[in-house]
Amino acid sequence: MPADSDLSRRRFMARAAKTFLGVSALPAAGLFGDHRLNAAGAGASTLRQVPTAKRVIYLYMNGGMSHLDTFDPKPGNEAMGPTKAINTKADGVRISEYLPRTARQMDKIAVINSMTSTQGAHKQGNYYMHTSYELRSSIRHPAMGAWALKFDGPQNPSLPANIMIGNESSHPGSGFFESRFSPLMVNNPEEGLRNSAPRTGVTDAELAYHLDLSKKLDREFTEKYQQKNVRAYTDMYADAVQLMKSRDLVAFDIDQEPAGLRARYGKNPFGQGCILARRLIEHDVRFVEVSLSGWDTHNANFVNVPEQAEVLDNGLATLLDDLDRRGLLDDTLVVLATEFGRTPEINPNEGRDHHPAAFTCLLAGGGIRGGQIYGQTNENGAEITENRVRIPDFNATIGYALGLPLDTVLYSPSKRPFTLADKGQPVTQLFG
Amino acid sequence: MTPTKISTLCAALTMAVLGISAAPEFQAAESETERVAVTDRIDQFIEAGYAANDVKPHPEISDETFVRRIYLDLAGRIPTRDESKVFLADQSANKRNRLINELLESEAYVHHFFNYWSDLLRAKTRIAGNGNSTPAGMAYLEWIKDALRDNMPYDEMARALIGADGQSWNNGAVGYYLRDYGMPLDNLALTSQVFLGTQIVCAQCHNHPFDEWTQMDYYKMAAFTYGVLTTNDSENAREATLLFSQQERGKGAGKGAGKSNGNGKGNNKKPAATDADDSGASMSMSMMAGDGDYDTREMRKAISEILFPVRFNSVRQTDRMPRLPHDYQYDDAKPKAVIWPETPFGPKLAIDRKDEGALDAHPSVAFAEWMTSPENPRFTKVIVNRLWKKVMGYGLIEPADELRAESVASNPELLAFLEQRFIAFDYDMKKFLRTLYSTRTYQREAHTEDVTPGLTYHFPGPLLRRMSAEQIWDSVVAMIVEEPDARSLGAELSRDRTLIKTEWIARAIYDLKPQELLDGALEIAAVQRRLSEEIQQTQVALAAAREDGDAEKINAAQAAVAEIRRQLQEHVAERIYRRGLKQKIELVSSGAGAIGSAENEGEAEFLTDLAALLERDPNFLAESGKPGKIGADDDAESRLKGAGYGGTLMEDVADRIMAPREEERRQINNEIRERELVAWNVDDKKERRSYDSFVRARNRLVRASELPSPAPNGHFLREFGQSDREVIDNANDQASIPQALELLNGEVITALGSRYSLLRRTLQDADSPDEMVRMIYQAMLSRDPSAEESAILTEALSKKETTPVGIVWALLNTRQFLFIQ
User: Fold this and answer.
1) Residue B536: its pLDDT value, please?
2) Which of B95, B303, B500, B514 is the most buried (most CB within 10 A)?
3) What is the pTM of this model?
4) Contact criterion met (CB < 8 Å) for B741 and A193
5) Mean pLDDT of chain B
6) Which candidate from A240, A300, A414 shows the least CB-CB separation from B741?
7) Residues A292-296: contacts with CB within 8 Å, 24+ apart?
């Protein structure tokens, strides 16, 4: 076969990349580490688009963020309840009054108001958003951070490359990939990386002495059992010690940040998680997720959403501004995602219920053209009227920005075939 | 007494226990003969494999290796120094078999195999991924432990799970279905994978790409269990809903009609205002505030508010049948067709439309019978292969849960023999495990190389395995606390409290007459309406506060909403739960006959508990749900208006039920403390502080199986690969950086190094560096150090380069500690 059709397809893709991005489709060697790609196995794509982002900060709004009360307001419609819309720095983009600081950063953000999901329950929706696959009890699919590492490996070998900040225990992690691709969990951003410093009173010399002692005592065992997992432990100890000594460890220490800036991010786990995320990507950590819970506003939506939005507003707006000032926004993709939106109908408890049919996600930085709205919903935000974006499409867009091969098939241990975004199509119009 | 003397004494005791009377001795002798015969046969099958494939078996392991391995494999932790010394000192010929028996009968076995089963069954404390589902989760986990402790035969266990119905507090097995709340099709795929080793999940959406299953097979099989409902309802709630629509229709059709007028679908229509005097509802309706007219939606909302605290607790078997998906693409049926149950392989079992109403048992029960019958070609094969893998580290068929028509075992004769034996053993798991652990094959040295995928493994010895997360944690626990296998009293009390509270709420609701429940629901609907108005007012206030940027007012408005929500729940408690419990109290107080004439055992037990509580605390209900004592009054409104409405009714009731046991627990803890302060010479303030901090750490150091399942993210157990219990068999043994950080710098090493840890207290007896090193090796690796190891460490101690705790630290961070040889 198909060598021909293959070739023509490649040509098409290359042309498409050029057309959409004004870039060439030849891989930029320094960024990719092609040997790792080859290691990913048969079926690997020979073609990858040029990345527009090196790193991702993924903000996850847990519980289902009300699109109407945040980024898709419908002024004048009764669905809005008491929520009003305000103008933003971007012409023609109006968002909710609960996000005044984000409004001033709107020139950096692409709002996708035409997101749609097939999943109406939290766990299923959250899983779908993170993996592009529907939740099945018989398999765990990898989340985006794990895919990125699987293809490209870490950019900074002395730090963990995939980090999750927050108390989200249902994260799909590395799915069926090796567990080393799992995000390292940071429950409390103020605490940083747990156990990364020696216990009180233990000196570096003592640590080194005892590690050496361990090795001596283990010599016979490690010689006898020449096995992969035994060696993996030996290597892992070396990595852990390297990490403990690494100058980059300071990335985890948000106490290094000026008090004023920390306050602007918001003195709450999400805001402090955002500032930690910025420090981590400054040290070339590839994928950092920060989660914000509390969006499940079945009750008193118009009391609870403003409170949530304030936390989001401080974290997101300060993050974008901070990244921009440091020149990091150009190659850092900031994503804001959630499992679904909320109903235009206001229920008897003055709340809004789950609404997967239409909702909003954001992309910013990393090659995304800011100040635009993509897709549209009808007059009360219930239905999509233009440019539907399915969750796999959204995730394909993230993968596309990172220059990951969207068509490379990897197999689970049960020999089922999977791709990075389940054949989603990247929304290339968002770039440039 | 020195440790050596204690061990000798223990050995003597063990001997005495094993020889107590003639009859068991005879039985023991008989089963011993049987065991020898079966294990020999297993070894012969394996050894025939060596001969045929030119495989050289590994040498038999030493007693030192055996004792550490068998403790880890059966008790789930390393042996304490005393335990291994007792075994090593024992000179009798059959001491290995005796230790196997002893460990199988210990609580440690329950702890350890629970981890295995909860990974396989994906059993979680928060069973449906939600805080409200903990009662059922806790009951399910406890059910699994009970089954293991009682050695419930495996086939019986499978039937109990698949045929489960009832409530969490009377049948923990309902957790099997609640685990897949609202996902009956997925549940069937899991059943098939767990019990039949058959992965048919692909066929949920299309014909299986590389196996024989069609989507039709899948739906036919799923039809057996599709009728098992996990929805939160109750008989009286269903009847109350029916009553409501009848009464509404009655109103719509004019006075006194009471029957359907054929316009039965108009439930959502809000009826016109009417003088509701035609039914039992009239009295309560006239009592209510507002206009007294509620639509079906409001009524259902009120009912669901009432049932809210008992959701995720009930499983009901019905005859509901599934329909094919709307996009069904094959020719054998139309999309959305109703599918009747039929089994895809083995002896055929089918139920069709003409059987409707004529079944002896629910389809799921019939399915469980089919599945567990010895004629089922996969049921026994799968469990035998799983247990073989658990023992040896590698299945006779791999992967163990993906049997196919063409799957061939590496040693087919052996697999067939094991299947036949397990059936002959009546699916007695302990008996089967005892046999496997007694084999020469198991008691050989671990394989030193990796098993090459694709090549057949002939079992020259078991595989070298990294300890599971639970084995590592539990081994650490065993080095720190005195009775590592003791169950956690704290966990027991919190479990019982949660379950009792849920059960009492449910009994208060379920036994109300439908009309009573309906009346209550309408009262709640009135409250909902009023509170919804309050929320709207709060919103206005909030908007104004935001306009002014008044942070205080914003906070106040937010607090007001939380308060409104709390009020709704309290109204429910007052109007429904208090009413229901009151009726129960009246029943118990009415005379001695009430308990005897209870409908079932569960009800009788509940009434007995209630009577006991009344005896102890006669006014418990009147005094619950509010501060201080007030006179007997049942006017919910005035209670709620009381400025200081403090407690939550059912929390208070639960506190009162649990009070004596909580008190007992406090006493036990005090006694332990007093005893230890003396025994461990904790004299001054500083020592007391360090003792207290040790006790705080110790409180968390219970067996992994006594902690929430799974442990929270970031917990030691999760770092080491404990399963998240989301996918079958999801634990992993892979290295990750946080593991090293944990063992190098984490809390565990601090607790281990505390002067009060079991290990440190043991080391006090060492009178030379040499002895010190030997004791550490015995405690951590169940052996004496080699001459080389001893030389290195003795010298390091003498030169003060390290300390005993330093040596413990170094050994904890070796591979040989972490891997099971």
Assistant:
1) 85
2) B303
3) 0.83
4) yes
5) 86
6) A240
7) A292/A59, A292/A60, A292/A61, A292/A62, A292/A166, A293/A62, A293/A63, A293/A166, A293/A167, A293/A168, A294/A62, A294/A63, A295/A61, A295/A62, A295/A63, A295/A64, A295/A65, A295/A66, A295/A338, A296/A63, A296/A64, A296/A122
